[in-house]
Amino acid sequence: MSKLPKLSALAVDDSGWGYFLCTYKEVRTGRSGSDFLFLSLQDASAQVVAKLMTDAERYKSEFDAGEFVRVEGRGSLYNGQVQLVLSTIRRVNPEQDRQQGFREEECILSAPRPIDEMWSELQAHLGGIKNQHIRILLNRIVTDNEAQLRTWPAAQQIHHAYRGGFLEHISKMAEVGLLIARAYGADEDLVLAGVILHDIGKLQELAYEGGAGSYTRDGNLVGHIALGMMMVREAANGISGFPLELRSQIEHLVASHHGVREYGSPVEPKTIEAFILASVDELDAKLNQVRRAIAEDPSDDEFTAWNKRLGRVLYKGQ
Amino acid sequence: MSKLPKLSALAVDDSGWGYFLCTYKEVRTGRSGSDFLFLSLQDASAQVVAKLMTDAERYKSEFDAGEFVRVEGRGSLYNGQVQLVLSTIRRVNPEQDRQQGFREEECILSAPRPIDEMWSELQAHLGGIKNQHIRILLNRIVTDNEAQLRTWPAAQQIHHAYRGGFLEHISKMAEVGLLIARAYGADEDLVLAGVILHDIGKLQELAYEGGAGSYTRDGNLVGHIALGMMMVREAANGISGFPLELRSQIEHLVASHHGVREYGSPVEPKTIEAFILASVDELDAKLNQVRRAIAEDPSDDEFTAWNKRLGRVLYKGQ
Amino acid sequence: MSKLPKLSALAVDDSGWGYFLCTYKEVRTGRSGSDFLFLSLQDASAQVVAKLMTDAERYKSEFDAGEFVRVEGRGSLYNGQVQLVLSTIRRVNPEQDRQQGFREEECILSAPRPIDEMWSELQAHLGGIKNQHIRILLNRIVTDNEAQLRTWPAAQQIHHAYRGGFLEHISKMAEVGLLIARAYGADEDLVLAGVILHDIGKLQELAYEGGAGSYTRDGNLVGHIALGMMMVREAANGISGFPLELRSQIEHLVASHHGVREYGSPVEPKTIEAFILASVDELDAKLNQVRRAIAEDPSDDEFTAWNKRLGRVLYKGQ
Amino acid sequence: MSKLPKLSALAVDDSGWGYFLCTYKEVRTGRSGSDFLFLSLQDASAQVVAKLMTDAERYKSEFDAGEFVRVEGRGSLYNGQVQLVLSTIRRVNPEQDRQQGFREEECILSAPRPIDEMWSELQAHLGGIKNQHIRILLNRIVTDNEAQLRTWPAAQQIHHAYRGGFLEHISKMAEVGLLIARAYGADEDLVLAGVILHDIGKLQELAYEGGAGSYTRDGNLVGHIALGMMMVREAANGISGFPLELRSQIEHLVASHHGVREYGSPVEPKTIEAFILASVDELDAKLNQVRRAIAEDPSDDEFTAWNKRLGRVLYKGQ
Amino acid sequence: MSKLPKLSALAVDDSGWGYFLCTYKEVRTGRSGSDFLFLSLQDASAQVVAKLMTDAERYKSEFDAGEFVRVEGRGSLYNGQVQLVLSTIRRVNPEQDRQQGFREEECILSAPRPIDEMWSELQAHLGGIKNQHIRILLNRIVTDNEAQLRTWPAAQQIHHAYRGGFLEHISKMAEVGLLIARAYGADEDLVLAGVILHDIGKLQELAYEGGAGSYTRDGNLVGHIALGMMMVREAANGISGFPLELRSQIEHLVASHHGVREYGSPVEPKTIEAFILASVDELDAKLNQVRRAIAEDPSDDEFTAWNKRLGRVLYKGQ
Amino acid sequence: MSKLPKLSALAVDDSGWGYFLCTYKEVRTGRSGSDFLFLSLQDASAQVVAKLMTDAERYKSEFDAGEFVRVEGRGSLYNGQVQLVLSTIRRVNPEQDRQQGFREEECILSAPRPIDEMWSELQAHLGGIKNQHIRILLNRIVTDNEAQLRTWPAAQQIHHAYRGGFLEHISKMAEVGLLIARAYGADEDLVLAGVILHDIGKLQELAYEGGAGSYTRDGNLVGHIALGMMMVREAANGISGFPLELRSQIEHLVASHHGVREYGSPVEPKTIEAFILASVDELDAKLNQVRRAIAEDPSDDEFTAWNKRLGRVLYKGQ
What we know:
6 copies of one chain form a homohexamer.
Chain A: E1 15-29, E2 35-42, E3 47-52, H1 56-59, E4 68-78, E5 81-91, H2 94-99, H3 115-127, H4 132-144, H5 146-151, H6 165-184, H7 188-197, H8 202-205, E6 206-209, E7 212-215, H9 217-221, H10 224-237, H11 244-256, H12 272-296
Parallel strand pairs in A: 3-5
Antiparallel strand pairs in A: 1-2, 1-4, 2-3, 4-5, 6-7
Helix pairs in contact in A: 3-6, 4-7, 6-7, 6-12, 7-11, 7-12, 10-11
């Protein structure tokens, strides 16, 4: 039995075995009265729905959601989406399976670029800051949260929703934001501060572990924008001599980065830098969605299927 | 020359002298080429537009916006509104004018109820809190901000926009909020905390002095909702053993009290108490507007003139 | 075989027999080509989906939608919701089953409070009315519609959608509405009239029988707001000397109680009492939804699953 | 001194005397401190703003709003609009002025077509009704309200806001509505009933006398849609054997004729006839506004000035 | 075995054989692990979902989407909709099946009126044009696109979505539009030009063949409004002496026919004719949807089931 | 008498003479009955309102709107805005006044950067295009419209509304758009095509001459988006071998550049390049407005006055 291709390349006729992360598991009762397993499996490249129809009774205790698994199965089409129909599934035995090629990081949906590469870029940006107050603030927050910043997704679902997605998002935003700041003579240090801190509250809004995320209590009740503002204030207040005017400007960047109140910003942009930040954030999130939608569309047509979240089809080209 | 009536009772034919607070002053050039003064004057009961058409050159240096003034003039109708047309104006000389009956508090637009009475009610509510964490938190914040809480308006323009308006607003909301909490078996202490703290950030959002208010830098850049959440967090973190879950709930009340994102709440109500708070806040603000609009409407008709902010006429009764 | 628990307590492993009201019945063709039954069953505490997969051909003529039934089955999970998978079903034989404990009122989804208790409260409110015109009007309408007012739901789906829900809704609104009216010095009699009459048109908008409701022709073509206004006018015109001004005010309360035109009010609130009524109605409906959503959420999490109608998750507490 | 042209033809250099209806009168205090009169004058063709700057003291007691007046003055441009600057004004002395050519109907803003002609058309439409219930209903309501139906405007401001405008509106809608009903095989009698009755509540919503209109108490508190529905119900209930189903359909037409809830319809169209009625009503109101805006635009440009209500400029042609 | 009724009359108990067009075909894997076929079949009268559950492996290569097929099956209810459950399916063998009564045009969902009849009406309208420029323009465009204009649908889904639907739509719009133009003294030739050309860009926006439609590249990227404007410009520029002002007016009709920008019109109506065109287009599309929804509703109730697109139920009558 | 400062620096006490362009002229009748002149004057740096109160009769024939004028006057404050109160005004006599320093280009509101400099940048961008079809297309359109592209404004009012504003807008957008395209690996040639062509229809939408702009007939009836698409199509069709797919993509960029239908785009972005173009266009327009609003705000406060178009105040900094 051959190995399954990576999930982003899974086609209808593929069959074989593979290692994946199981992020969702439910025992459902079929119409015939017998149980089946309804699962989500992912590797670094994609996430798919999987079903195990036969012997669910036996397999359902062989693993749990949140565990790495070894499966055998084949690709099958359902409602225009490729799914995996499994014949066997069991949790990974790390010691033994590692010899067969099991690697944890290959089983978690991940940003396409290497994390160390993106991290180096971020460090370079930090090194270029001229305003010492901003430099101290950013270094402190980035250092304190390095582990999370390296591995977390940027969101639960909408965009950059995978390992390293947070870093990918701010890394690209830093590149683009600084270019625009330069072009318009805006304060580059402020724009960079906005880029790095605008979503920092997500580190408290979400809980992310082993490839699976969920909202925390504060995430639901307080929200990442206010959480981020509080993190900024606490950090700024901990830096001796941090100017109040600068603190206001940075909190404003975090507060206004969704651009309009309808999208959850309690105040709307009132500075050149805040307008730039909101624009760069929205464009990066949109382009990530567009790219994903085009990449994941299975057809050979020039256009993708209807994308519900974006409310349109997208052009894939000839 | 007789004394002018209080401004809420000013009619077209009234003339005389009076003490007022001047909250706005502008020298305008009339079409004839000569200057005139365009002013806002207020006493405890109302605010009116005033104009001085003759000898503006001479009077314009006799006072400034933000000062108490002594004027002579008469009521005049303009676009359906009673205005004061002045013949003289000068700044108050406190020592001397006090003998003629000048009292500062009578010249500042004020809540209709005595402040001490509302303050006692608030203290009684605080005394009834059962949850000790909430009691400590509220007492600390209320005590620290007593001077402001006693005298500030609840808003710049829309509702309770006068001296003591903030206290009038939370005092009435406390009364109503607790009744509703009891009726629905909600947590009364939480509702009271929400009532007292929901607009606490306005103490940093606005600057209010001598009857005139303006937005602060943080008011414009950060906004009163996030400012209030930070005040809550700082105070809660300063209380030993303050439960994190309780802190989240109180911050949620502040965050969600505008009810929907479109009105600036970064998160929407997710608890019974947050739904009650948003409802009570909106109703109290609306009824204050409605009452004012009815009270200030000068006509004898059954309905007020078109109220632009509410987008309707209001029924005054037969 | 043991008896099934009440439906609000039904868990995945429960099995047994029980009496229910069947409110929906459909014969569906499964993918295997054989038929199965898709049903809604309710008792006083909750409503669930039920399926009968085996021998549908035989059981489908054993009962009809709208009838009380006796079933055997067990709880099963489907898409995160507990359903009943039935092995047998037949219509209730009242005489015989009553001996086994069948009680009609226990099989119809109902308000949690006893109807007589709520009815007494309503009578007490009516007894306290000072304005004799309003007292006569309300007594006449309440008396004429007693049977319906005691047992109808307040709505088809959204809130208080069960036996006695109408009475529960106006009963709670009367309590809260009068408290608020007192707090703001509004006309208590008018507020009470608004509370009792605001949805009175639903008695003509809906047809409700044996636990199942549907829209009438006039409900669809005329709508409950206009129907209610007509009921008020007809009743008021039948009372000698009923003041026209009072009739206008009460019709205004009914007309404007949805608060804004977007929600179907042909005119928007223009009196203190109308603002209070719209606020109390919205809050009571919302809190009923929130309470239900929290009570019906099956998980152990701090938050409910996503609530589509409210557009958010809700906090259930620790 | 020559006679002024009709107001729709008034140009900047015209001067002379004329008879008009004064619909608004306000004594304003000018910046120089002296009073002037700010007025609205109308004749059958148009309405203009008029001002009397000199000797206001003397002239202000010579007439009141709502009276016919004789004025002397000349056309003057203000903000791109032609106004009348008056030198004299006094109320009409009917006996004496009639000899100089004063005719009441020539001084009230009026529909361009003769009222008797439109009335005949309406009678012809009524004569063609096949359904006897509808015929009796319409004849009764039309006969009972003939005086008002002949002379009232269709609205206070937006469209057909002049003497006979109501009749002009339903007359044209009857013509167009019947054509469309025939084209789509809809029930012509129902469409005609909808046309004649859709705004019938305006006869109670507005008070119109001598060229000036205002909202009644019921107009503000109940609104013309509900008032019209009640008039239909009362009339239908007074006709022996009037079918309930037909009454529902006609009430539905009145209820839904604004097309969507946002515009005040408590229910939205659910029948072919209701869709047609809403479409014909909107088109006729829009075209009346467009025609007026084009006719009243004073410039020689191809396009009108910005029309605030329609939110656009309009093409007048080469 | 008898022949199946036409699809618009298909009931649950009907079984037999028939010829249809298969417009959609998907092989799905059922929960039991075996494949089944999920199809859309249509004849001239209606379109239905069909499934083949048994021997899918064998039948799936017997035909393709876009082909005419011969099936055997029976009507079955699923979610309140009648579907066809098939036992056999194969592609049509034209020569042989024609002898059994197969007619292509009877297997394609079609407008209810004969195409030649509608085409004659259109020609009559063209013959009545007075403005020679418009007459030449319309004749040229109609002639050049006759084949498509005769057979295309007016839209992919929403209204007139069947063979001949485009012609049915403009044919009825021409009738109604000219009546309205006459009633309002609008330019009839311009209205007719707008009617015939408003959707002309759909001939490039859609690809329609053998009963199945799809969006073209230009349809997705450019859209039918701009495509239509370009077709008009190209045609007008090709006519010697075509007045620029007339070209602008006609392009304006095409551009503004959706009435508001939210629905994709880059400019909004600015001429009487454009207002008429937008109104007639919307009404004809709406009535077509209403008629279809009423015709296709399977129940015996007075009202249809909830219509998602129209956001309401519709009255079918007693 | 000294020369007036440039208008962007005009203060209340400045008086003297100067050369300006008069873009608006109206003779108004003052309340005293005498005429005065209401004007708009501009130089390269700003535009102000001007009034001439004395001897209007004499001066009104000394010049017309659209002419260059020589005035004497002084700065005066009105409603918080500095205006010019004139004592004399006459049209410029080019020969004679040129000797006194009159320069046409100094009297027309202009972009801050030299036009030749921006033009060179644009040429450099054109030189860098790799796709020969795009290069030919852009060169042809840019060359054909060089005179207009060098001097026109980008809009009538909202942003870049001055001489050279169009060039300033696309020049800055080209710089930023190419940076973003590179950052996201988008097609740089397509983005540049979108930047240069997105507003090209404005050259037909507006008429701009001597500093004053107005809408053309096609501008009002067809709109700049469709006009631009037609210009692209005509140019592309005139280039032999221009690929249809490329033409579609470029037309899509023009069509979708407003981002959403509500803002007049008949189709919404469906390619990476279209998303980038819409984002860059919006940001550049917004930042231009923000910069202008900050630069033109006359106060010493940290924030600007309320900006109606942006719906907020803006932070000017300490």
